[in-house]
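hi support,

uploading two proteins for the ticket. first:
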Amino acid sequence: MAVVSAPVTNIETHFAVSDSGYYSDCYSMYGELSVKRDAMRELSPLSYVERVRTPTLILQGESDERCPVCQAEELFTGIMTATGTPAELVTYPGGSHHFFESGRPSHRKDMLMRLTGWLEKWIDEPLKADDAQSCAHGGEDRPERADQSAQTAQPAS
């Protein structure tokens, strides 16, 4: 199982939508977008989303400017449409990039409950041999679509 919080899933779009992408992505990629576009695509997790076989919980602050919510939405939508892998996307209203450490107490509690619930749900689920085989072959024989959901966490009253 996987738990992802505030991901960068598409370096090319992160460059354009993040409050730091225009300089941090160029720095980490050793060049400008116009020169490193192919490398950015090759290194972006979204380029390989059809191979995802690990149940994935995505946690995201809706007001995150460092890793904007569109990055999490792209990952979730990619998993949902290209695989049969269980996935959930939970967004936290008003949550910043640091909602996990310094967000609303109700959001931090909710996030911890979801994280532990996800671990408990999937900890004993082994990767099936046919899923591993499918991953090795680029996912051509993907399983049927599993239960997937997108949710907005509601603050406690």
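and the second one:
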Amino acid sequence: MGPSESTKAVGKAKHEFAERYDVRRAFWTRLLAEAKSKTKLHATISPGKYHWIGTGAGRGGVTYNYVVWERESAVELYIDRGKDCDAENKAIFAF
């Protein structure tokens, strides 16, 4: 008889997710190799399977992130010093 259609669909989705993770990991590997040749900031980052990677900016609660989507990409400065730190977050941003 064989697997049901729903079982086949689940298997296909798992395969597509695994393939997507492999593609992302390959992309991050190449990007990080290039970035590491320019700055020490990326020396400790390992390529991952997610659509973003980040590293500390040398100050707690402040990170640099690379983000990629299907048709777009971004570089972020993420500032979050924690609960009740709105004024400090704004001061860091204004700097």
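thanks. also noticed: The two ends are 67 Å apart (CA to CA).
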